[in-house]
Amino acid sequence: MSVELIDLRSDTMSRPTQAMLHAMMTADHGDDRFGESAATRALEDHCAALFGKQAALFMPSGTMSNQIALRILAGHGREVLCEAGHHLNVHQASSAAALAGVAVNAVTTTDGFLRPETAARAIGDRARWIAEQPATGLVWTENTVSGRGGRVYPLALLTDVKHWSTHHGIAVYLDGARIMHAVAATGTTPAAWGHTNDAMTLSFTKGLGAPMGAVLLGTEDFIGTARRYRQWYGGALHQSGPMAAAALWALRHNSARLAEDHAGAAFFASVLAESPHFVVERPDTNIVHADVSRLACTPGEFVTRAAAAGVRLLPVRRTSVRAVFDVRTPRHRAVRAAERLIAVAGEVRPVRGTARSRWWDRIEAPHPVTVSHQAHSRTWG
Ligand SMILES: *Cc1c(COP(=O)(O)O)cnc(C)c1O
């Protein structure tokens, strides 16, 4: 008997619903290079208003958004400060250097969040006018933090980073591929996050479930320049209407339902945590990292065994595997996946003690913000 495959590798695999397909079928086919794609214009206007930005530009991918923003905001020959685990540093294959001529100053933190004090330490007492020092052009942030199991970057912390950066004349960018997950998890408005940066992107292909696309958001000036670079990079589209319509439909109809994916991920995590084989923290959003170091196999081997049992995962962070939840995985499938993984783990000899792990005993206060505004103004004026 063949088992039904449950693919938890990424939320990029979420499929368009019938209603989204209908929105695509009824979208116009105007040419966006001539400014005649009504659906693309509607998407851009909607996104700019939603995040409180002056202007928006539809992009084929989040990676292209990131690369173009990097090129404009950091500037050729300068450096970007970026937490070491962020997508820019880990998944974009040195393109910062190859395409934008920008060096990544990758800062390792314990929790995945760059803070004003860690940014200050990374720059050191470097005076920016000394010719031998790299000039820091940009501070890079990411929300949710995908390499940290979809953690939400606290709004207050991002606000502190923005204050610090502005004080030092450094621009801030937000790679908000999953920013709508942060919005859903915190009950905040998108505009609240829009205020924490000079420019940002949002991806439609993750949990929002559209087949492709991202949007770049910023000032009129910034978007004007980005439009020129989008042409350079081959990302200017002609009949983008159907793809923009899918993106707008996703934003309007799928943003609220992301909370269901978060609930599914939390439930999956709690089932795994009840078994002695995994160490699992309660997820903030739709990504679960399960530590498998109690098992006598590598994360890669565990992924292979899990696939044979009908659950596809990805190995992450040396000791863990990740599972991502989206519209394809309602709660009964999440539970079935967890049960299969527990069965797989049961067939692998454990390496150490079998103390039960309970994530609800291990929850810390959600990512405390240590920099008060008072301390902030004392230190940085
Ligand atoms: C997926 C992702 C990207 C890249 O988006 P693509 O549309 O796949 O190019 C960038 N940053 C983060 C945090 C992501 O999760």
Task: Report on this structure.
- Its cofactor is pyridoxal 5'-phosphate.
- With 381 residues, the protein is α/β, with parallel strands linked by helices.
- The protein folds into 2 domains: 18-254, 3-Layer(aba) Sandwich (Aspartate Aminotransferase, domain 2), CATH 3.40.640.10; 257-364, Alpha-Beta Complex (Aspartate Aminotransferase, domain 1), CATH 3.90.1150.10.
- Helices cover 42% and strands 15% of the residues.
- The chain has 16 helices and 13 strands.
- A 7-stranded mixed sheet has the order 2-8-7-6-5-3-4, sandwiched between helices. A 4-stranded antiparallel sheet has the order 9-10-13-12, covered by helices on one side. A two-stranded parallel sheet has the order 1-11.
- The longest helix is centred in the last third of the chain and has 16 residues, at 258-273.
- The model is unreliable at 354-381 (pLDDT under 50).
- Bound molecules: pyridoxal-5'-phosphate.
- Pyridoxal-5'-phosphate binds at residues 61-63, 66, 87, 142, 146, 175, 177, 203, 205-206, 214.
- The site of pyridoxal-5'-phosphate has 13 residues, from α3.
Biggest pleated-sheet summary: 7 strands, mixed
Helix content: 40-55%
Mean pLDDT: 90
Portion in beta strands:
5-15%
Radius of gyration: 21 Å
Query: In the CATH hierarchy, what is the superfamily of the largest domain?
Result: Type I PLP-dependent aspartate aminotransferase-like (Major domain)
Number of helices in the DSSP assignment: 16
> What is the correct CATH architecture of the largest domain?
3-Layer(aba) Sandwich
Small molecules bound? pyridoxal-5'-phosphate
Oligomer: single chain
Strand order of the largest sheet: 2-8-7-6-5-3-4
Q: Give the SSE string.
A: EHHEHEHHEHEHEHHEEHHHEEHEEEHHH
At CATH level 3, the topology of the largest domain is Aspartate Aminotransferase, domain 2
